[in-house]
Each structure stands twice: as C-alpha cells, then as structure tokens.
Amino acid sequence: MIYRKGLIAFMITILAGCSVAEEDEAASSPEQGVFERKNIAPDPADQSMTPRRAEQAYARIALNCINKQYPNKISHLMSSAADVAEPAKLTPVFYGCFDWHSAVHGHWLMTRLWGEDLVPEMDEEIAAALSANFTEEKIAGELAYFNGEDRNTFERPYGLAWFLQLTAELRDIAAGEGGKAEQAKAWLTGLAPLEAVIVGNIKDWLPKLAYPIRLGTHNQSAFAFGLFLDWSQRSGDTEMASLVRDKALSFHRKDINCPMAYEPSGEDFLSSCLMVADLMRRVMNESDYAGWLSEFLPEIPTDGSDDWLAVGIVNDPTDGKLVHLDGLNLSRAWALEGMASGLPVDDPRRASLLASSKLHGETGEKSVRTPYYSGGHWLASFATYWRTRRGIDRTGGNLAS
Asked: Which helix (H) or strand (E) holds 197?
C-alpha cells in the first residue's frame, strides 16, 4: 500500500510537468517565495466535467496559470553570469503563464472579473492570489529587473500595454466604494513605482518611433497605442495621451485601402488593419472617423452580413505559433465592435461590423475550451477582453480634438 501511494504521488508529479527533484527543491527553498500550481486537476475549461459559466472557466484558467512557472518562454537579456536565474527570481510578480506578458494579462483577467463581480463565488480566491503576488518585496524585484542594464525595451510595446491595462482596471475599481475599492487602491499604490518606470520607458520611446509597426504579433504599435490611450484617460496623464494621439494621427490619418485580402498571416493574433481602425476611433470624432474608415476599409458591406471576413483557421491547436489564429478571431471581434462604436448610430456599416464581430468572437471562444496549454494560457484573457467589452467601456470618450 505504501509503495502504491508513493507511485501515485510520483505519477501525479510527472503529469504536473515537473520532476520529484524539482518539487523537493522548491519545498526546501522557502526563501524563493514561489507557490507553483501543478495543474493536476482536470482542465478547468472542460465543460464535459462540470458545466460552468465562461467567466468561471476563464478565472480558473488564470488562477491555475499565474504561478505556474514552467514551461516558460523567457525573453531575457543577460549582461553577466549574475543574470542567470529562474523566471520567478527575475520577475517575481509576473513569471507564470509561459511568459511575462501572459502573466500580466492573466492578472488583468482576474482583476477584471473580480472587479466587475462576474465570479462572486471565486472572489476570495482571486483576491488571495492577487494579494500574494502584489507584495512590496515582489514588486521591488520587478522594479530591479526593469532597472537593469539595457532593459528599457523589455516587453515593448505589447507587455507594457497589458500592464497599463491592469493598472487602468484597478483605477476603475478604486473609483468605486466598498471593500473592493479599498483593496484595489492598496494594490494600485503598491504597483505605482513599477507603473512609473513603465510609463517613463514608453514616453521615452514614442518620440523616437519614426514609423508604425504593422505586424500581426507582439510588436504591433496600433494595439498598444489603443491600450495606452485607455490608460491615459483613466490616469489623467495628458502627456501620454498627447504623445499617443499625435503618433496615431501622423501614422494613420492618411492610410487608405488597407489590404485585408492579405490577412491573416500564418501566425497573426492581431489584425494589422482592424487594430488601426480600432485605434483611430479613439482619436477622431464620429463624423471624421466615418469618412476616414470609408477610405481605409472601403469594402465593409452595408447589408448586415457576417461572412464578409473569413475567420482564422487553426489546424493544430498544440502548436504555440499556429494557435495565434485563435487569438486573431477574438481580437478581430473586439476591434470590429470597437469600430462600430465609433460610427454614428445610423451608419449602414454597423450591422455588418457587429455581425462579423459576433461570428469571430464565438468562434474564438470555442478555442479557449481546449486542454492545450499552448493556447489556453493566454486565450482566456482575449476572450474576457471581448466578452466584457473592455475596450469600449471607457471613461471620458475619445481624444478627438
């Protein structure tokens, strides 16, 4: 019996993705301050186990992910042998979920659902997980990493944009009343030094950026600019707002005939065309935006159809690059809805934009409910962003002059 129990424990450890030696080492290193979830339970998004609401499944994915250190794809500049360390020691807050930016938007996902009271039965668990990571000591470790030599480009712009989305979310919650507002204020205060460094890096970069970055992946500028603007409205940072607005207009005001026929590329998770359109509705009034969009995407139909833009296809959901197309469907969904929100209510293109948004969003959400970590560690955040209409639920309107 003892042997059988030991064998079962050993197999659970193997299935969890680490060796007995690694587990013993973690247990014997309390100074590390890392609690690594092992993901030995059935997949949290598997509806065949226990039917649950999407928000519950997405929150569970993030909870199982933010402190899961391995596997990990690290983007790390080493200046000396002293920079060789495991992810949790390099960036003690945001080390899980495969990479830094996914850990950041995993924290955002939980904060969003918690703050919106969408998973009240999980509030206590989410608050405990966030409190355990948003400690003074761990945030100091993040600061030390960002202040390291030649790290001013780290996670720019994608990860930095998601970090500002996280603090923007906390500001929204903190503006309310009650216990959650007080807790959000405390977390926001703790993260303020890191936020200041990140904002400083962005402001240093923007004046130097000579051209837009039109890729369909992490380096794209349009997606990041949109999140920068949403943060600036909540934080009251008029300097950031002005920098981003001026860049957006100088880069894209004269854009015409965006080649949607060339999309998607095989590893895109952001649309080069639609993200620009979703950005520009933030910096133009309705009338100007309607005219600009007619030149930028002249083939948007007016018949309410949803099939004018084909959804992205993923042939292997276990491939970490190919699964990007699942994210493309979700980011297209929120961009299309954002575009419709920027048009006059009687604009005949709104129906087709919203119909295509629904098609892409529902297609994308199906991809979250798979057991594959290659996509699951980040797709839940994209689904939550679309499902909760985060990019549209803004304060202060757009930044049109």
From this structure: helix 179-205
